[in-house]
Specification:
Chain lengths: 271, 363, 294
């Protein structure tokens, strides 16, 4: 009897929590399909329209070019950061490198530097080099932010793999590099993919540097959001459409890795 | 040919000495077992031979070649790990083929050889499976197959049977013995299970705290243990070790008086195996005490007597029946082996007159 | 052996990336902190003024306000997030379809861009047409017409809400991981001994989670100190300056008022605070590892 009661309470709680999680997201999705007059009411019943999406991709908003920028910046960052990080992570995990703790702390400590501290020098540096408002600049900056974190994450995954198989391979006749290629990478692939997607998400959502370093050409999606603020007020229905564009790819990726998320988060912290 | 020599090797981790400086020669074709409790250094020695662990000082020679600086892949060895070390993302067939692939054998030769080996270890129906789909015993055989596929000079095995259940362990022991007989390769085998050591080894190196305390054939280790540690480690149930003294031609301890024809000794430890003790009818037997426990093993009853501080275990008949705390009398079998150890050093006491003491009933 | 040189070689690419992109800017910014530099007047850094910029900060109301705002924000957000995350983790580790479903969608708030979250909440809390403003007013009539983002305290409340909504999932995942590493036997034996669930949670589970909770708290503190995106899109620092955190304040000083010297000094003050906390974090990681292996 009491058990039934608790079970109901539990389910109610879960329902409430799921609602809290999903509500802002769903509301934004709904608004994206509303006509302006519906957007400013709170009705759930409305006539859906794709106008907003058409509008944001056209002039003067040009969301399309922002999507392109975000994809290129995030994609390139991942393609550079993940291989570098994987190699370093393997080294940290398997080798008793002298000063290993110190080097690892060095890499990790960059996570604890607020972005505002390095924004200014980057701004000036890129200005001097004529690289303001370029995707290249954004990639450089994102690499700085993301590489340490990804190294830490992948190291956690590699730590969790027992080294027996690698030792067996070395005895079977494989050189260290061969072992990494044939044995470690395949076994660590889920972890590497999870970390890659995590890296992509972080770069995709990056805001401060994009805000300061871009003007027109290299504007990424999160900054594009802010451009929907006009002197007349905020164009919510357009903002929502843009919001949908920003979030859909990320949500799909996030859902792909959510199973491995717990391990990645705690692998370094708990073990 | 494939002799392994460890010359003055030592392994330290900072100030901790895992393997003390010592030498060891493993003869061509022999099955040497490194036996000892956890942390005694046996696995460390194995890994140094394999090249997975760096040697702090000393030399390792394989077939008279100094291999200290050679990586594992150049030492022509094969190893079976305790947790098998299989490649989880490869099929059984790919697992076994991998070593051949690395040594550049062409595809046809590879396939033929893998088929042959798979047959030998009865893995043929499982070739397309992944390790995660196999049972413990099957995985073990894959590890074994992968090891023998290259016919290396030396086999190294790190407690390969310890993850198997008792019944399977028994079967695999016989398989390993047979395999060794067939292949005749030099094998170094690490275990903490004394039964595996006794049944498989041509020689056993008993280790304690980084040092080999006795290196001998199983028979000798069983009948002439060099010290208390070895005496208590080998044999199941373990040898009885009783503190006492020898005076007036007898070994004296609470409830125990055993005639021994040697001079007086203080502080000795007497060693006698349970199977060398039997029940006695006489009321003035060598060993008396109260029954503390009785354990039926199927073919015998292990009777544990207590007398004050000393405890003795004897191997009695399977149909023995008695009450706990009842009085009991035991005597030594004719021809029983008596071992004497010095209490302080733990070393075996040797006597010029006899290599070992045999008890003779003088009735 | 060859392995030694390989071990260093593997580290090189990552280190090149990190050092090249971090060391130089850090050095530059530190140097700028000791100089006077108004970007609207000079293109290059100005004269060396020693610790003037730092000293100025401590007497300047903008800085003092931002410290106050930041402190409130960090304390409340860390406390609430931690409690929620731990509770959620305890709830979500059980089996059930709804549990699994919630666990799956849990990652979504974390994946969402904080800037977008700010925009979204701004929309929902608009007094005239915001769905949450209207909805809450419907349940609590006294809340009708409340100018959520125009009131200093309420604005802070909404800002906190966005941050808590964004970070609780991540922290919940950490707690879930921590809970998974506690041996089940400790709870099971307590249950056999007759302890109630509440007792088990507070007497057995939480004590074993101390390490994880501490690490989670420190991590969240660092993320809270870094928080920036939502301030831009949700409140713009307002109303007035009531949500102007230190990070946002630095941004204004540097890129609205172009006082580069002062901004750099402020940025280094923030960095110093975060460095201290991160050293504490690493110490805790190491000692926790020691305890775990003991």
């Amino acid at each position: 009897m009491i058990k039934r009661f608790y079970w109901c309470v539990e389910r109610a709680l879960l329902f409430m929590i799921s609602s809290i999680i999903l509500f802002p997201i769903l509301w934004m999705f709904l608004t994206a399909f509303k006509l302006p007059r519906d957007a400013y009411s709170i009705s759930i019943i409305f006539t859906p329209t794709l106008n907003n999406f058409l509008t944001v991709f056209a002039e003067p908003w040009n969301l399309g070019s922002m999507v392109m920028n975000s994809v290129i910046v995030a994609g390139t960052t991942v393609l550079i950061a993940v291989p570098c990080a994987s190699l370093a992570a393997y080294s940290f995990s398997r080798f008793r490198v002298r000063g290993r703790k110190f080097l690892f702390f060095l890499i990790l400590s960059t996570q604890f530097i607020p972005a505002v501290v390095i924004v200014l020098p980057f701004f000036l540096m890129f200005r001097d080099l004529g690289l303001l408002d370029t995707r290249f600049a954004l990639i450089i900056v994102n690499l700085a932010i993301v590489t340490p974190f990804v190294t830490w994450m992948i190291k956690g995954f590699i730590d969790a793999i027992p080294s027996d198989s690698e030792e067996a391979a070395m005895i079977d006749g494989a050189s260290r590099l061969r072992v990494i290629r044939d044995i470690v990478l395949p076994m660590a692939m889920p972890g590497i993919l999870t970390s890659s997607i995590f890296c992509f998400i972080l770069t995709w959502n990056e805001f401060l540097f994009a805000l300061i370093l871009t003007r027109r050409d290299a504007v990424t999606l999160p900054i594009g959001l802010v451009s929907f603020r006009t002197e007349h007020g905020d164009l919510w229905e357009l903002m929502s459409a843009a919001g949908v564009m920003i979030t859909v790819p990320i949500f799909i990726m996030a859902l792909l890795i959510q199973k491995h998320f717990t391990r990645g988060m705690t692998a370094g912290a708990v073990k | 040919m494939s002799e392994v020599q460890l010359v003055d090797i030592e392994k330290r981790y900072g100030t901790f000495i895992a393997v003390q400086k010592q030498s060891l020669t493993i003869h061509n074709g022999e099955f040497l077992v490194l036996l000892g409790p956890s942390g005694c250094g046996k696995t460390t020695i194995l890994r140094m031979i394999a090249g997975l662990e760096e040697i702090t000082s000393g030399d390792i020679l394989i077939a008279n070649d100094r291999v200290n600086d050679k990586p594992p892949k150049d030492r022509d060895i094969a190893m079976v790990f305790q947790n098998y070390g299989l490649y989880p993302h490869m099929t059984v067939q790919q697992n076994i083929t991998y070593p051949l692939k690395l040594s550049g054998v062409n595809r046809d030769a590879r396939d033929a050889r893998v088929k042959e080996i798979a047959n030998k270890v009865e893995l043929s129906p499982l070739l397309k499976r992944r390790p995660s789909e196999l049972s413990g015993g099957q995985r073990q055989r894959v590890a074994l197959a992968r090891a023998i596929v290259r016919t290396p000079k030396i086999f190294l095995m790190d407690e390969p049977l310890s993850n198997l259940d008792a019944k399977l362990r028994g079967t695999m022991r016989a398989e390993l013995k047979h395999l060794h007989h067939e292949l005749g390769a030099t094998t170094v085998y690490v275990t903490h299970d004394q039964m595996e050591a006794m049944t498989l080894a041509s020689r056993i190196a008993v280790m304690d705290e980084g040092r080999i305390v006795q290196l001998d054939t199983p028979k000798k280790i069983y009948s002439e243990p060099a010290n208390i540690f070895v005496a208590g480690f080998i044999g199941s149930p373990p040898m009885n070790l009783i503190e006492g003294k020898v005076s007036n031609g007898s070994f004296i301890a609470p409830g125990i008086k055993i005639p021994i024809s040697i001079g007086n000794q203080k502080n000795v430890i007497l060693g006698i195996r349970p199977e060398d003790i039997e029940l006695s009818d006489a009321s003035d037997s060598e060993i008396s005490g109260q029954i503390y426990a009785m354990e039926l093993t199927g073919d015998a009853t292990l009777i544990t007597l207590r007398n004050g501080t000393s405890s003795i275990c004897a191997r009695g008949p399977a149909d023995y029946e008695a009450q706990i705390n009842a009085a009991c009398q035991l005597t030594l079998r004719s021809g029983a082996r008596i071992h004497l150890f010095d209490k302080t050093t733990g070393q075996r006491l040797r006597y010029k007159s006899l290599t070992n003491l045999l008890y003779r009933k003088n009735k | 052996m060859q392995d030694k040189s390989l071990s260093y070689a593997l580290l090189v690419p990552a280190f090149v990336v990190v050092l090249a992109t971090t060391l130089y800017p850090l050095g530059y910014s530190l140097a700028t902190a000791f100089r006077e530099w108004d970007l609207t007047r000079q293109i290059r850094p100005g004269a060396f003024v020693g610790f003037d910029n730092f000293a100025y900060a401590f007497s300047e109301t903008g800085f003092q306000n931002s410290i106050w705002v930041t402190t409130i924000f960090v304390v409340v957000s860390v406390a609430v997030t931690l409690v929620l995350a731990m509770s959620l983790a305890l709830l979500l580790r059980r089996k059930g379809r709804m549990h699994t479903f919630t666990r799956i969608i849990l990652i979504l708030p974390f994946a969402m861009s904080p800037a977008l979250i700010g925009v979204s909440y701004r929309f929902m809390f608009n007094p005239e047409f915001g769905v949450l403003a209207k909805g809450l007013a419907g349940i609590f009539p006294s809340l009708a017409g409340v100018p959520w983002l125009a009131d200093p305290n309420l604005a802070m409340g909404v800002l906190l809400a966005t941050d808590i909504w964004h970070w609780t999932p991540y922290m919940t995942f950490m707690c879930l991981g921590g809970l998974a590493s506690i041996p089940k036997e400790t709870e099971e034996s307590a249950r056999i001994d007759g302890a109630s669930t509440l007792r088990i949670v507070f007497g057995i589970v939480l004590p074993q989670m101390k390490g994880i909770l501490a690490i989670t708290a420190v991590l969240k503190t660092i993320f809270a100190l870094k928080m920036f995106d939502q301030v831009v899109t949700l409140t713009g620092g307002g109303p007035g300056r009531s949500t102007e955190t230190l990070a946002y304040f630095i941004f204004n000083v540097g890129f609205k008022w172009y006082d580069m010297g002062y901004a750099s000094a402020l940025a280094w003050i923030l960095t110093a605070i975060m460095m201290l906390i991160s050293i504490w974090y690493v110490r805790m990681l190491i000692s926790d590892k020691k305890m775990a292996t003991a």
